[in-house]
Amino acid sequence: AELYGKLFYDVQKSNIFEDSKTFVDAIPIRNVDSITQRYSKRRKLDDAELRGFVFDNFELPQTKGKYRSDSLSIKQHITSLWKVLERPSDIKLSGTLIPLPNPYIVPGGRFREIYYWDSYFTMLGLKEDGKTETIQNMVDNFSYLIDTYGFIPNGNRTYYLGRSQPPFYAMMIEVLSEIKGEETYVKYLPYLEK
User: Fold this and answer.
1) Which single residue of 11, 99, 114, 154 has CA 20 to 30 Å from 162?
2) What is the value of pTM for the model shown?
3) Contact 85, 129 (CB under 8 A)
4) CA atoms of 141 and 172, how far apart (whole Å)
5) What are residue 27's DSSP bridge partners?
6) Pairing mode, if any, of strands 86-87 and 58-59?
7) Is-contact 62 95, C-beta < 8 A?
8) Residue 176's CB: how many other CB atoms inside 10 A?
9) Which whole number is the average pLDDT over 106-119?
């Protein structure tokens, strides 16, 4: 809303996307000022024209294809999902996505970013599957967010910088310490204190 003004409101009020999260996660392919100026010079657009304008000026977020595991057991199904839900480290700010230095697991579907308390429960599953490096990466990402922003936002999107979720960071450290030992608490103490 702050960046795109009337364009944001028109897109969110229209029926051009099934999910209101689609546009806020879109990445502008031109200068934001240029997009808003071009939009302000247009007459009222119908939904098809508005959709065309958005497609001409933004890269829309992609959701990985539908996943099916057919006849796998529940454990095999969950284990096979880790690769589907893993995202690589981010190099730079891309639209509203806050870059993270290490790979991480997302919830999936419309949720294409890491989420704070969801990640704790994800780590419990990762621990069961022996995915220690992924747990370590995610804890390091949350430590990075604490260092950078002073807290862990709801998710790694700029529009989440005004809110967080229930504090699960210490419990994440506990999961990692159960695997790597007591020295884990020493390593992450500065972040826990902050």
Assistant:
1) 11
2) 0.77
3) no
4) 12
5) 59
6) unpaired
7) no
8) 22
9) 91
